[in-house]
Specification:
By secondary structure, this protein is mostly helical. The chain has a domain of about 70 residues: Multidrug-efflux Transporter Regulator, Chain: A, Domain 2. It has six helices and two strands. A two-stranded antiparallel sheet has the order 1-2. A hairpin with a 5-residue loop joins strand 1 and strand 2. It is elongated. The termini are far apart.
């Protein structure tokens, strides 16, 4: 196949800098070099980088992607570890969604209390000030 780094970057929607980073960290195997010392990426590099990019898009961290990629390299393994990794990530996403929902509700409440006027009577600033005092008192 023989892709240079720019072509691989375009094919996967990433940047050459990101490709070099994944190569340095071992997530992406080092490619062969041409006679001119250019990186010569193969179809396997394209597949692996697409895998990494998809996993990153789903929010997996580098350590989990490294583990998942190692599992993908040995298709005869039991997929229990992949399930544990994905389930753990799903749990973290669910917790984050709950936190964001609480944040949204608090912001909605603050904004709903705003009636305009001067800063001296701004309910948003008042709520934030009261919250800071309550937080400090409970620390």
């Amino acid at each position: 196949m023989g892709l240079k780094i720019g072509a691989l970057a375009r094919a996967t929607g990433t940047t050459p800098e990101t490709i070099r980073y994944y190569e340095r960290t071992g997530l992406l195997p080092k490619p062969a070099r041409t006679d001119g010392n250019y990186r010569d990426f193969s179809a396997e590099h394209l597949r692996r980088l697409s895998f990494i990019r998809h996993a990153r898009g789903l929010g997996f961290d580098i350590a989990d992607i490294r583990s998942l990629a190692a599992l993908a390299d040995d298709p005869d393994q039991d997929c229990a570890q992949a399930d544990r990794i994905a389930s753990g990530h799903l749990d973290a996403v669910e917790r984050k969604i709950e936190q964001l929902a609480r944040l949204r509700n608090e912001l909605r409440h603050m904004v709903a209390q705003c009636r305009g006027g001067s800063v001296a009577t701004c309910r948003i600033l008042h709520v934030l000030s009261d919250h800071d005092l309550c937080t400090e008192e409970h620390s």
